[in-house]
Amino acid sequence: MDARARTVVNLGNKLFANKNTVDKLWQEIALNFYPERAEFTTTRLPGEEFADHLFSSYPVMARRELANMLAEFLRPDKFFSIHVDDEDLDQSDEERAYLERLTMIQWRAMSDPVARLVTATSQTDHDLATFGNGVLWFGLNLSGDALLFRNYHLRDCTWTESAEGKVDCLYRKWKPTARQLERHFPKTISNEVKKLLSEGPNKNPDKEVDCFHVVMPSRLYDYKTKGGKSFPFVSLYIEEESETVLEEVGLKHFPYVVPRWQQVSGSVFGSSMATSAILPDGRTIQVVMRTLREAGEMHVNPPMIGVTEAIRGDIALYPGGITFADIEYDGKVGDVLRPITRDKSGYPIGREIVEALKEDIRQGFMLDKIQLPETTRAMTATEVRRRVQEHIRAAAPISKPIQQEYNYPLCDGVFQLMSQNDGFPFNEMPESLKGKEIKFQFRSPLDDLAEQNEAEVFLDVRDRIFAPAIQIDPSLAEIVDWATATRDAARAAGFKAKWLKPKEALEERRAQMEEEAEAQETVQDIGIAGQLAEQSGKGLGALVQAGQMAMQPVPGTPDGAAPQPMPMPGRRPAGLVPVR
After folding, report:
1. pLDDT digits 0-9 by tens, 403-447
2. pLDDT of residue 127
3. Alpha-carbon span 119 to 151, nearest angstrom
4. Is pLDDT at 56 greater than 50 in this prediction?
């Protein structure tokens, strides 16, 4: 028997003992809002009805709607993307394309149906909406060729926090049969389990064995490999009664995700922002609905009053029944059998109370804040944008804390697990990304609305402000980096980075277009110069020809006489006087 195992078992028993009051509260919440999970303090047999104590299903349906909408808020299609801290590097085309490739690899692994992500996270969402806590485990399947996700009942789990407020130690109760335990740990099972499997009077291979699965920091459990290697965490499987360590394995990551919705200092357990406020309403609506159902039944099938001496035989109140009365009974005194008159004035008041309770429950589950705002009537773009902004401000406090407690540890843990098992092509990583810290960004309908709003702002400002201003002063077009603004707006609208050409290619194309424009301008200048030269040449030829003609002798003059200059247009020859 290992003293360390005894210490671990004793700590686990103490933690579960301290959690008894929390389990009682969760049982009461489950009975009113999540009857399928009402097994914290009782055990339900398979097939046993679990909602026969309810008279109104509205609290259950409101919880179901909130949990389903949380799933859409937290994990829409491809709900995460991988980034680095350096923003300029993160937005560079080559690096962005590689990070998007890593994102797709991890998304395909997580969304593989074999991994059962949707099933596990859906169960965790309902636990989170109802109790404010959830437990989700992730790891590799038994064959080691795919991821696997599992949700566990809060009844079977308890945990502690580190000094930083993070859950770093979790105990989970596990009750396998002796046969299952031997299949998983054939070499390390205790002698008590071997007796259950061996031939003899104590043979009972289907008896359940109480075990713990514990993941805790190595500082709480001194563990090293045979080679002396240590790990941040250690995973332990221990038989509770015999205190036998079945398996101890070092881990580089914490394999449990424990989202807590609303946290209060001094408690390691979270609470639901919904059910913690409307548990009284959930109880009250059941009482009121029971009263109204009884009142309705009293009016539909009222109690009867009869005259004993006048009735002959049994009273038949079923359809077609006949009740015999004494012929001598005087009907003027009253019917021999008649309903008891009841006051009906209180029924409408009861219905008003029920509607008020339903509205309180609806607001308590924040269904009025999560649903998208109505924009069906004729609204301007500015009105729609303001309505969306109001919706984002109202719904962000609901989803943002859960993203940090739920999505981030889930995606970061899976990334570490896949990295340790060569799930990413790190050999193709650009040199500029090596050594950079990976971080995750998450998508949600709120984030999509916010990004689409940014794209709408770009279009609005471009069309309403810049377009008219540039018509007045074209130089104003130079105050905006249109290439960067267009790329950012396209990405905000959902345009993928791999659909955009690299910035270097854009700069090369710009330079090429400028060279082509300069060459074309040079050709045009040469053409104009040629036309001018041609026209100048024709004019010069005409002058030369005119000069040659002027040097020829004039008929009627003596040989050798100097030729007379030819008169220019608008000029009189010398010696001529105009006739008046």
Report:
1. 888 999 999 999 999 999 999 999 999 999 988 888 888 876 656
2. 97
3. 8
4. yes
CA 185, CA 176: separation in Å to the nearest integer?
A: 11
pTM: 0.75
Nearest CA among 97, 109, 23, 37 for reference residue 67:
37
In this structure, which amino acid lies at residue 240?
E
Please state the length of the chain: 580
Contacts 24+ apart (CB under 8 A), 337-343: 337/304, 337/305, 337/306, 337/307, 337/311, 338/304, 338/305, 338/306, 339/302, 339/303, 339/304, 339/305, 340/302, 340/303, 340/304, 340/305, 342/298, 342/299, 342/302
**In sequence order, what are the beta bridge partners of 172?**
157, 213
Kind and range of the H or E element at 214? strand 211-217
For residue 560, which amino acid is it?
G
Phi then psi dihedrals of residue 337, to 5 deg = -145, 120
- DSSP, residue by residue, 540-577: HHHHHHHHHHHHSPPTTS-TTPPPPPPPPTT-PPTT--
Do residues 152 and 172 lie in contact, with contact meaning Cβ atoms separated by under 8 Å? yes
Is-contact 96 488, C-beta < 8 A? Answer: no
User: Rounded to the nearest 5°, which phi and psi values hold at 118?
Assistant: -65, -45
H or E element at residue 182: helix 178-184
Report CA 50 to chain centroid distance, whole Å. 31
76 SS3 class: coil
Q: How many whole angstroms separate alpha carbon 507 and alpha carbon 489?
A: 19
Lookup: tokens for 151: 């949700």
Indicate if the alpha-carbon torsion angle 376, 380, 385, 390 is positive or negative.
negative
Using one digit for the tens of pLDDT, what is the confidence trace for 211-232? 999 999 998 888 877 777 889 9
Q: Is 575 left (phi over 0), alpha (psi -120 to 50) or beta?
A: left
Lookup: tokens for 306: 């009869």
Flag whether pLDDT at 560 surpasses 60: no
* Token pair for 503: 């910035």
By the 8 A CB rule, do 12 and 171 touch? Answer: yes
* 287 Cβ contact list (under 8 Å, min separation 6): none
* Ramachandran quadrant class, 71 (left: phi over 0; alpha: psi -120 to 50; beta: rest): alpha
Judged by DSSP in three states, 133 sits in strand
What are the C-alpha distances in Å from 108 to residues 79, 103, 115, 446, 504?
12, 9, 10, 24, 31
Q: Tell me the pLDDT band of 2, cut-offs 50, 70 and 90.
A: confident
What is the phi-psi region of residue 47: left when phi exceeds 0, alpha when psi lies from -120 to 50, beta otherwise? left
Question: Who wins on pLDDT, 201 or 153?
Answer: 153
Q: 519: alpha, beta or left, given left = phi > 0 and alpha = psi -120 to 50?
A: alpha
Encode pLDDT of 107-136 as tens digits.
999 999 999 999 999 999 999 999 999 999
How many CB atoms lie under 10 A from the CB of residue 479? Answer: 9
Percent of the chain with pLDDT over 70: 81
Residue 346: φ, ψ to 5°: -80, -15
The Cα–Cα gap between 270 and 263 comes to 5
With contact defined as beta carbons under 8 Å apart, do 392 and 449 qualify?
A: yes
Residues 186-195: tens digit of each pLDDT: 999 999 999 9
How many helices (H) and strands (E) in the chain? 17, 14
